[in-house]
């Protein structure tokens, strides 16, 4: 029987593209992914405690601590400060993952208060849930390295504190009478040196007694490898340098990766947020494959959503476009090469993938993703002019363009029905039409460069057919906006209600012929995704009357949240129906490009104001109180922030 892992968003993340750690606002480690940033997730519990002169262990994740968390400027180094003012006790915890080694470093600086006598002892309770399984693991104390080791098949983890003497240890089985948590809480360590299945361990490390008024310090290392031999070699390498040196090297890595500080008139707060967004996208990118996840997984049991720790071709393309526009062409190219490797034989892509390239759980392909990736290929080539890249992606690009050309409905000239951008409707969506148009238009340019005139002609004809269909079939004069979709599949009840209202409806059969399907002709709800007609896909003239009317309808209808921002669409109920960072910045970009600079800056500043205390951007902002409401950090939000930041400086070069 597996243990339920409840949805829990981090306060901050740190990683190196292979290892990704999620850490709560109070410093508690809650997720630890390796050797991919999306798989496996290996953490069960990791607690750190202090031993008072008398009484039970003081756990840092429990009790009434005042907490403050922030990143060291322009790095992924996360600092959590905990304090109990009534006693004077304070702890500063610094977390980071080494850039080139798969090791999470946790440094503690502890100052005892006048009201609390502390022993020079740090206690850890550690239980890995390797590959999210309580089965087939083993744990032992590796005396030759003074380390606690837990393993399952070819995944080995070690907890070590080089330079600090081991004062006590105990291994046992989690959630049984032998669970070492009870011993750790009392400061008693019976000395069990091994365990099998659902293992947990408690250890006590000696710290140097502090001089009066000074702090006690200790550095812990959580290291991962595929065998004991590799693990011990890694521990020996770590031991060769002090924690301060690893901190220096990690700081230098991130400062070297970021561009020089921008010399412009943007406020420092905005430049720092822009750079935080770049770092966040880097952390959410698999350094070995190029895949980019939507967010660190926080709901693996899908109790409140369908999960986020996967690579959507669409979301990843927006991130790659942002990285390319910011000058990170290598990272963008790596993502596109990843998409070329994982493309389906028919030229499409699945809904989402693990960053290894394997399929992730899906509930329906989305044709807009095919168009978006193809458009991204064209955007990258326009920026980089990289002929080798062209040769590498051309087979995937031509397959995708042929797939899209074959998916145009002969009945109305629009792309066939599929799941929409928000993944909650099966329909012929207007956004998907814009994405497919842009993808085919990009393919036309690439084909001409390749001298493939026949292909370019066929694809251009398909793109123009879609553009004409959007303009002639999807305008809703009553609402002065484009339709959200046509040919939408609905429930029987919704079908009956629409029929009663006199709307166009029809029925059909599922592919097996066994079940009835119900359809309505139009979805008239105003949807922020209609912005895609203007940016980034350029199907509409941004100065046209319809464009202006559509934007005004959108501002009026979707901009009514008490906390500000822009909703996704009318009657959105997902996760409370809050305004989204993505949609708000989307409108900001369009407004900036239309010369509405004041409005654009206001929307941009709203997104900045609703970031987390660590500067991470959520998917949604609480509609009543403001601040992060759901999913943190979201790659797409950070991608749109980068694009908006550049748009406000007229710095978008390929869009």
Kindly, what is the distance between the CA atoms of the first and last residues, rounded to a whole number of angstroms? Answer: 51 Å
Count of runs of 4 or more consecutive helical residues: 15
Low-confidence stretches: none
How much helix, percentage-wise, in residues? 25-40%
Mean pLDDT: 96
Main β sheet profile: 9 strands, antiparallel
Please provide a written account of the structure.
- With 655 residues, this protein is α+β, with helices and mostly antiparallel strands.
- It has 2 domains: 20-257, Beta-galactosidase, Chain A, domain 5, CATH 2.70.98.10; 268-484 and 524-647, Glycosyltransferase.
- The chain is built from 15 helices and 26 strands.
- The strands form 6 sheets. Strands 6-7-8-9-17-13-12-11-15 form a 9-stranded antiparallel beta sheet, covered by helices on one side. Strands 5-4-10-16-14 form a 5-stranded antiparallel beta sheet, covered by helices on one side. A 5-stranded antiparallel beta sheet has the order 18-19-22-24-23.
- Helix 8 (387-405) packs across helix 9, helix 13 runs antiparallel to helix 14 (597-609) and helix 13 (581-593) runs parallel beside helix 15.
- The radius of gyration is 27 Å and the shape is elongated.
Annotation keywords:
single chain; 655 residues; alpha+beta; Beta-galactosidase, Chain A, domain 5; Glycosyltransferase; nine-stranded antiparallel β-sheet; five-stranded antiparallel β-sheet; 15 helices; 26 strands; elongated; hydrolase activity, hydrolyzing O-glycosyl compounds; 6-hairpin_glycosidase_sf; 6hp_glycosidase-like_sf
């Amino acid at each position: 029987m597996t243990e339920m892992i409840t949805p829990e968003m981090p306060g901050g993340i740190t990683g190196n593209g292979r290892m990704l750690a999620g850490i709560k606002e109070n410093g508690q480690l809650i997720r630890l992914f390796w050797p991919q940033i999306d798989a496996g997730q290996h953490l069960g519990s990791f607690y750190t405690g202090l031993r008072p002169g008398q009484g039970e262990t003081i756990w840092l994740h429990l009790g009434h601590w005042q907490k403050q968390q922030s990143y060291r400027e322009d790095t992924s180094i996360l600092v959590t400060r905990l304090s109990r003012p009534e006693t004077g006790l304070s702890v500063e915890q610094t977390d980071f993952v080494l850039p080139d080694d798969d090791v999470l470093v946790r440094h503690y600086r502890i100052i005892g208060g006048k009201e609390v006598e502390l022993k020079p002892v740090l206690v850890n309770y550690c239980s890995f849930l390797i590959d999210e399984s309580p089965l087939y693991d083993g744990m032992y104390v590796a005396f030759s390295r003074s380390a606690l080791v837990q393993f399952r098949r070819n995944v080995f983890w070690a907890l070590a504190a080089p330079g600090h003497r081991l004062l006590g240890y105990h291994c046992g089985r989690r959630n049984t009478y032998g669970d070492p948590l009870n011993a750790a809480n009392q400061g008693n360590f019976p000395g069990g040196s091994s365990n099998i299945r659902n293992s947990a361990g408690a250890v006590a490390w000696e710290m140097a007694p502090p001089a009066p008024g000074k702090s006690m310090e200790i550095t812990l290392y959580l290291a991962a490898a595929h065998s004991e031999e590799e693990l011990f070699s890694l521990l020996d390498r770590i031991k060769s340098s002090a924690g301060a040196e690893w901190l220096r090297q990690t700081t230098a890595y991130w400062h070297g990766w970021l561009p020089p500080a921008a010399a412009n008139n943007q406020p420092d707060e905005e430049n720092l947020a822009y750079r935080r967004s770049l770092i966040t996208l880097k952390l959410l990118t698999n350094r070995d494959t190029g895949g980019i996840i939507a967010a660190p997984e926080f709901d693996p049991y899908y109790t409140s959503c369908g999960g986020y720790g996967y690579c959507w071709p669409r979301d990843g393309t927006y991130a790659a476009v942002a990285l390319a526009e910011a000058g990170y062409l290598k990272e963008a190219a790596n993502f596109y090469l990843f998409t070329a490797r994982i493309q389906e034989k028919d030229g499409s892509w699945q809904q989402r993938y693990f960053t290894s390239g394997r399929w992730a759980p899906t509930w329906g392909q989305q044709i807009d993703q095919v168009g978006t990736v193809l458009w991204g290929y064209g955007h990258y080539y326009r920026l980089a002019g990289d002929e080798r890249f062209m040769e590498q992606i051309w087979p995937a690009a031509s397959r995708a363009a042929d797939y899209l050309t074959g998916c145009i409905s002969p009945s109305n000239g629009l792309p066939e029905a599929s799941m929409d951008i928000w993944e909650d409707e099966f329909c012929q969506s207007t956004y998907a039409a814009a994405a497919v148009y842009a993808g085919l238009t990009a393919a036309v340019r690439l084909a001409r460069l390749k001298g493939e005139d026949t292909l370019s002609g066929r694809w251009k004809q398909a793109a123009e057919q879609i553009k004409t269909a959007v303009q002639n079939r999807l305008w809703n004069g009553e609402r002065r906006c484009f339709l959200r979709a046509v040919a939408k599949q609905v429930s029987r009840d919704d079908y009956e209600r629409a029929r009663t209202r006199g709307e166009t409806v029809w029925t059909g059969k599922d592919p097996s012929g066994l079940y009835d399907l119900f359809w309505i002709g139009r979805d008239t709800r105003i949807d922020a995704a209609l912005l895609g007609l203007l940016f980034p896909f350029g199907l509409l003239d941004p100065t046209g009357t319809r464009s202006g009317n559509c934007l005004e309808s959108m501002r009026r209808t979707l901009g009514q949240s008490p906390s500000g921002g822009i909703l996704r669409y009318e009657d959105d109920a997902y996760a409370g129906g809050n305004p989204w960072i993505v949609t708000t910045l989307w409108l900001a970009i369009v407004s900036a490009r239309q010369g509405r600079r004041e409005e654009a800056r206001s929307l941009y500043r709203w997104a900045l104001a609703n970031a987390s205390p660590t500067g991470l951007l959520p998917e949604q902002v609480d509609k009543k109180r403001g601040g992060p409401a759901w999913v943190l950090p979201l790659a797409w939000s950070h991608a749109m922030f980068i694009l908006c930041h550049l748009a406000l400086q007229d710095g978008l070069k390929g869009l």
